[in-house]
# Entry
Amino acid sequence: MIFDSLPYYDNDLEQFPVLREKVEKELAREAKPLQALHPRVPPPPALFTDHPLLQAEMARIESHQPLPPLDSTRHQLPGPQNPENEEGWRSALANAHAQLEHQRLRHSNLALLQQYGSNAWRIHNYLTESTANNIEKALEELKALTTEVNRNRKNFQTRVGTQLTSLETQWTVLISNILQIEMANVALEAEIERLNKTEAELSGGL
# Structure
């Protein structure tokens, strides 16, 4: 496994501010990444495909349109505009029957709500709180797992960084020793050459 950088250990940007300026300029030149979701994130579900009215209401809410005003005329009992028109009386009577049925249903619903509503609401609250607790527990477990992963990564990078620093120091010492040996060899070769010349001069003088 090859690591090009150890972000938990390297501190070149802190030691050399010029590098940080170069990195910031390079990042500023790059194109901004697309705000796309992760490929594993499923597409949003299509809601209320079988209910056009609910789909229309969802579209209204997403477009931030105001709620249309309630039609109050449906709760009134207007008489026919022409008292002599029989069809007008039939329409008014049908409206009165519809209003009466509506009030009867409201009365039945209120009676059912008064009898069973409180218990149903308590059960709903209990289920909602249980779901919220499960989600919070899963979130805490995920945060703990993330913290553990980051801790292990930091410990590993710190350990590897220390080893790399030690190896780099040893490499520097060895290179320095090699240079010193090479310089000593050059000096010895020069001394040997000088002694050879001296010996040749002494031999020629004899």
